[in-house]
Amino acid sequence: MSLPVLNNFPVEHLNDEQLSSLAAAAKRARVAALTMVTAAKSGHPAGAFSSMEMFMSVFGVANLTPKNCDSLDRDFVVVSHGHTSAGVYAALSEWGFVDREEAMAHFRNCGSAFQGHVTREVPGIDWGTGNLGQGLSAGVGFAIAQRANGRKGRVYVLMGDGGQTKGQIAEARRIAFKEKLTNVVALVDWNNIQISGDRRKVMPCDLPALWAADGWEVVECDGHSFPKLYDALKNAGKNGKPTVLLCHTIIGKDGLGMEDIPDYHGKPPAREMYDEIVKHLGDSPEVLDKALARRKTPPVYKGRKVDFPPAPSIETGKPFDYEGVKVSDNRGAFGKALADVGKLNYGKADKTPIIVFDCDLMPSVMTKGFKENCPDNFIQCGIQEHCVATMSGTASIAGVVPVWAEFGVFGIDEVFNQQRLNDINHAGNKTVLTHVGLDVGEDGKTHQCIDYVGLMRNMFGWKLVVPVDPNQTDRATRWMLKTSGDICLAVGRSKVDGLKEFTGDYEFEYGKAVKLRSGKDGSIFALGYMAQIALKAAEILAKENNLEVSVYAVSSPLAPDMEALKEAAKSGPIITVEDHHVDTGMGSIMIIEAARAGIALPKIKTLGVDHYGASGTSDAVRVEMGISAEGIAAGFLKAR
Amino acid sequence: MSLPVLNNFPVEHLNDEQLSSLAAAAKRARVAALTMVTAAKSGHPAGAFSSMEMFMSVFGVANLTPKNCDSLDRDFVVVSHGHTSAGVYAALSEWGFVDREEAMAHFRNCGSAFQGHVTREVPGIDWGTGNLGQGLSAGVGFAIAQRANGRKGRVYVLMGDGGQTKGQIAEARRIAFKEKLTNVVALVDWNNIQISGDRRKVMPCDLPALWAADGWEVVECDGHSFPKLYDALKNAGKNGKPTVLLCHTIIGKDGLGMEDIPDYHGKPPAREMYDEIVKHLGDSPEVLDKALARRKTPPVYKGRKVDFPPAPSIETGKPFDYEGVKVSDNRGAFGKALADVGKLNYGKADKTPIIVFDCDLMPSVMTKGFKENCPDNFIQCGIQEHCVATMSGTASIAGVVPVWAEFGVFGIDEVFNQQRLNDINHAGNKTVLTHVGLDVGEDGKTHQCIDYVGLMRNMFGWKLVVPVDPNQTDRATRWMLKTSGDICLAVGRSKVDGLKEFTGDYEFEYGKAVKLRSGKDGSIFALGYMAQIALKAAEILAKENNLEVSVYAVSSPLAPDMEALKEAAKSGPIITVEDHHVDTGMGSIMIIEAARAGIALPKIKTLGVDHYGASGTSDAVRVEMGISAEGIAAGFLKAR
Question: Among residues A4, A246, A525, B148, which one has the fewest Cβ atoms lying within 10 Å of its Cβ?
Fold first, then answer.
């Protein structure tokens, strides 16, 4: 019996024939899921069985098919409880997205697309998950992108109940409510069992009250009933609010001996138990033998190729020039460039929408100009950084350029794991950290983001740009907006000089260090704005010590300029200077890459942050840290 | 008029005389706070004025005085909205904790104790904050420590209203409710103004409904009324639930021209405005002139010295020995040692209580034995890692040994900023990451914690231990439990061999690499358990290539053993091996420290994780990553 076409709710209610074919499919899917975990000797059977009717229903009714799943004008589905992957793959196989036999044979097998937690390599999966609490934020990001592009598609988010306690979910609820995202439909698998037992005892959490308190329409529903799920999904959002279906389910449902047993959260059944369950589901245990036999050969299906989103279609305009002493802060130059590019592209149907997210910091992160120029594309998200970090990731893969401007410690330290998942998922985030290093004014140690280079270095795809002056900031901003992939722009708070080197025809080039001064007696490599202070140090060394040192400005610390390093290695000592943790920043990266490349750096000294900073003016804090112009000059003399 | 003694609520209600002296003190404190921000030309005046009666009340009624604030048997106070520091310091000066003139002169001045965000260096401050959302979690940790030590003290947590949207607050609410922490009293400064304007428009959030939904007693209260605050604080907790006072306030209250204006969130008034406000408050603008004059001289008061908590009083027992092939997983050896030490110390009045926190992972993180041995000291916290990361920090400084066992990606990646604040605050956390590197079973890339060394390296105080085998794990666990400071123990999931080198009298020594095999043809440095695979690689090299290589096991990657490195540098090439991001782990640290120490490493090759890993058995995933025994041997040959 083939499954009925249910995409976009073609019927008022499901009829008997449709129901019986869905019931048969759910049985097959349970057999498949159970076979996957048993063959793999690992995985999460009970949750897969618990959510099976929810998976079958959502992948059935959504405007999401094997044919349209690589396009953007469609519905999106996020499975937040990604550990139920066996159930998801089984449901997807019923709806024709993936091959059932291959999934049963190679689930959790190295090299297969069918990983332990759902990944975008599997068609039908829009976001790789497994770290609980992020899924609803992901859904909100998709919904924002739909709206920005004038698309009508819905976003379905499926979650477990144990993870409902994660704070990030509440943040996402509030943004969805405030933004009136009636096209977001959340489903919670409410089986009341988590690893440690009864959910109500492990950590009491009043699910209906919490969703209602955050403004959502709450619908309780039998999570194993296809007709009730169909009707509830069909009616969601009709009252003008985002809707959650709290789906009453039984963990391990229809898995004889697994029902309501916490132990099967993450444990496959023994062979005998497998056989019993499969027979009960109307199939033969030989399914497992076949899967095991096939597992002896390598996986065939590696999944679809997942790339960073294509480069946005953006008009980037003409850069602004800044010349003079303390002419602008870099954050201000970012804000002006962003507002300019925003205006150029706002409301143009052939351009990728630029959406700016704010967490109640607009006056400090300089996005006011953009808001004035592009009011509909500015989204106030309140003090809820975890949600914003994730939603900007999904928005980026659904056809917008998301720009999140934020203080450094909140844009990366607070949300490192969310940015890591963005990296794993190949997103196209544009995160702008406006208060990095010691340049945060008098806010003190809790606000000094002295680790952004070191944190970003732990990922694989992120590009990081730390501009030297307002001119380079302007150009790097325009470059970032039109470039694919996850990019972080990091700027300080203080007014700095505009340097001629970065005006006029200068174009930002990722990975290239810029030599601001030449000298025969050694070199200073300085990160971003610190290059301006390094120039002053070079002047001191020339005047007081008769030494001529080169100054290289490094704006791409994750992609060290090896040619510049080779050149510098030829003349005298090298010191590195940054208002960043001295063990994890630009200097450390240069040392590692030089060692790997076999470039001998006989005398090298790293200057940077070696303790938590004081609370004072940026100038005073740098003096205390030994990286004022005088401190740098003294450091160079010691390195000789 | 001197202030009345109000600690521990000596009267039923405040009398007229007490009220008028409090009112006078609040005026003085507002003058002081305004003088601080005006003299510093930065800071947050409006919130300081908004919370002033709350600050004055809490520091008045709490069992917290300049005399007892360095002890533990007392009340604790957490100011979560740490940016209102000027108001906090002003209130503390009224209650005799700090010197008013010094605070007014040197607020936010480099070197002064009076930092931009409250810090523990200031007496009366129990937790340095400023990153919103963490304060209630901090309070819950203090309350847990009070209970564990049989102390009756209360914990007061003051918060702003804009930050109420942070998800971590909901997590803390739930844990407080579940643990029946009636001694926790939260106060929210509900002025409805945040940086971006009206809180109800910036991000709607139904405060009473949310606190009530999570089980708290909700009391609405006039936040500027001393008698009402006194009565409400006195009655808090009497109905058996944790209590929140939602305090209706006016931002900028009594600051003429500042009231209800978002702009003064983070901006001092101009001089004219300052003068007007100070006169209105009954004082002379000369206060500012005096402060400015004193500001020309360096700060006198650096604050009290804040150290890591003293080493716990713990009986660590006799280590277990493990010998044989795949005799135990390291996580299991940790669990057994923890259970053993727990039993030895459980319920003994002269021992520091060991409290184990769980986020619904007990069967995987191996804390079941401890729970069985020490049921009252095991706290189930649900899937709420942000709260637990913070609460274990404060619990540690209030007299317990907090052990949080957690998967790597949730214990550090997800909560990096919370662990950073623990470092800044000099906590004594014991975080055990049980699934690190590629050794997470088949869970795949989202669960592979390949960055824990690189993340930890961005802080200054954390110690990190990655044991080689169950014997070293056992000994490192016992060492950790009795050692002061923030310590992370990182172990894998697979069963591994028990090595003789770590049995018997072997004692764990932080920072020492252990040479497991000697050879003249080069060296392999391997992180933790990977040393066992490196030994197999050395066997392959001996057998197939007639090469004798040394194998050094590195268990303290943040504290490289420079003697071992010097020794190895003398004989042949060095390769480093770790199932960690190859750019940020042990190998990179060794290269940097060698360069700094002037140790020439002519031939070095770093093997590690250079892309997100596959989903498969740990063995298969390591083969794919090129760090199986065969891969390591091949890597060594390439390095020659």
Answer: A4
**Number of residues that make up chain A:** 640
* Residue B545 in contact with partner chain A when CB distance is under 8 A: no
DSSP B205-219: --HHHHHHHTT-EEE
C-alpha–C-alpha distance, residues B186 and B245, integer Å: 6
Determine which helix (DSSP H) or strand (DSSP E) holds A418, and give its type and residue range: helix A416-424
Which sign, positive or negative, has the C-alpha torsion A187, A189, A190, A195? negative
Q: By three-state DSSP, how is residue B585 classified?
A: coil
**With a CB-CB cutoff of 8 Å, which residues 563-592 of chain A face chain B?**
581, 583-584, 588-589, 591-592
The answer to whether the beta carbons of residues B499 and B321 sit under 8 Å apart is: no
A627 chain-B contacts, CB cut-off 8 A: none
What average pLDDT does this structure show over B286-310? Answer: 96
Judged by a CB distance cut-off of 8 A, whether residue B342 touches chain A is no
Residue B411, judged by CB atoms within 10 A of its CB (0-12, 13-18, 19+), counts as buried
User: Is pLDDT at A126 greater than 60 in this prediction?
Assistant: yes
* Strand boundaries in A453-534, DSSP class E: 463-465, 487-490, 495-498, 514-517, 523-527
- B397 contacts B309 by C-beta, under 8 angstroms: yes
Contacts of B447 in chain A (CB under 8 A): 116-117, 130-131
Give the distance from residue A3's alpha carbon to the nearest chain B alpha carbon, in angstroms: 31
Dmax of chain A from CA atoms? 92
* Nearest 10 degrees: Cα torsion A450, A455, A457, A461: -130
Q: Can you tell me the distance from the alpha carbon of A307 to that of A72, in angstroms, rounded to the nearest whole number? A: 14
Residue with tokens 């953009």: A370
What SS3 state is found at A396? helix
Q: What is the mean pLDDT of residues A82-92?
A: 98
Q: Is B615 on the interface with A (CB under 8 A)?
A: yes
CA distances from B206 to A175, A177, A178, B161, B213 (A): 13, 12, 12, 11, 10
Name residues whose C-beta falls within 8 Å of residue A546's C-beta, 6 or more positions apart in sequence: none
Mean pLDDT estimate for chain A: 97
Q: Which residues of B touch A409 (CB under 8 A)?
A: 131, 417
pTM of the predicted structure, to 2 decimals: 0.98
Secondary-structure percent of chain A, ordered helix, strand, coil, rounded to 5? 40, 15, 40
Please tell me whether the interface predicted TM-score (ipTM) of this complex is above 0.85: yes
CA distance A363 to chain B (A): 8
B112 has a chain A CB within 8 A of its CB:
yes
- How far apart (Å, rounded) are the C-alpha atoms in residues B257 and B266? 15
Q: What is the 3-state secondary structure (H, E, C) of A338-390?
A: HHHHHHHHCCCCCCCCEEEEECCCHHHHCCHHHHHHCHHHEEECCCCHHHHHH
Residue A424, min C-alpha distance to chain B (Å): 7
Q: How confident is the model at residue A590 (pLDDT cuts 50, 70, 90)?
A: very high
